[in-house]
Amino acid sequence: MIEFIIFAALAWFAITMMKDLMRISEQKAIENAKKKAQEAMEVTRAEAEAARAEAKARAKAVKAAEAEEMVSCAICGTVTAKHEAIATQGQYFCSEPHFLQRPRSEPVAETPVENTTESVTQTTSENL
Ligand SMILES: [Zn+2]
C-alpha cells in the first residue's frame, strides 16, 4: 500500500513538473511569437517608411522633370533643356550660332501701350 502511495506521489510530482515545464515552454513560445510579431511589425514599418521615401523621391524626380521643360531648337530641332536654350520671341535655340541664324524677317513692332486711363482721369478732373 505504501508503495502505491509513493508511486502516486512520484507520479503526481512528475505530472506537476511536466505541467510546469509545459507552461514555461508555452510562455517562451508566446514570448517568441510576440517578439517575432514585433520584429515583423518593425520590418513592415521600416518597409513602409522606405516605400514612402521612395514615393517621395519619385514624386520629386517627376516634379523636377516637369520643371525641366524641354524645347527644340528653331534652327536644327535639337531638343534642349529650357534653361540651357537661348530664348527669344517665343523661339528657342540650342546654341549661339543658331540663335544668330534665327530668321529676322519679321521685326517685332512693340506696340506702345497707350495710357488711356490717365487721359480719362484728366478729363474727368477737368470736368469737376
Ligand atoms: Zn540648333
- Provide the spatial order of strands within the biggest beta sheet: 1-2
How large a portion of the residues is in β-strands, by DSSP E?
5-15%
Question: What is the gyration radius calculated from CA atoms?
Answer: 43 Å
Which bin fits the share of residues in helices?
A: 55-70%
Number of H- or I-type helical stretches: 3
User: Ranges with pLDDT <50 over ≥5 residues?
Assistant: none
- The total beta strand count reads 4
The succession of helices and strands, N to C, reads: HEEEEHH
Give the rounded overall mean pLDDT.
83
Shape: rod-shaped
Whole-number tally of structural domains: 2
Major sheet characteristics: 2 strands, antiparallel
Distance between the termini: 135 Å
Ions, cofactors, ligands: which are bound?
A: zinc ion
| Structural class designation | mainly alpha
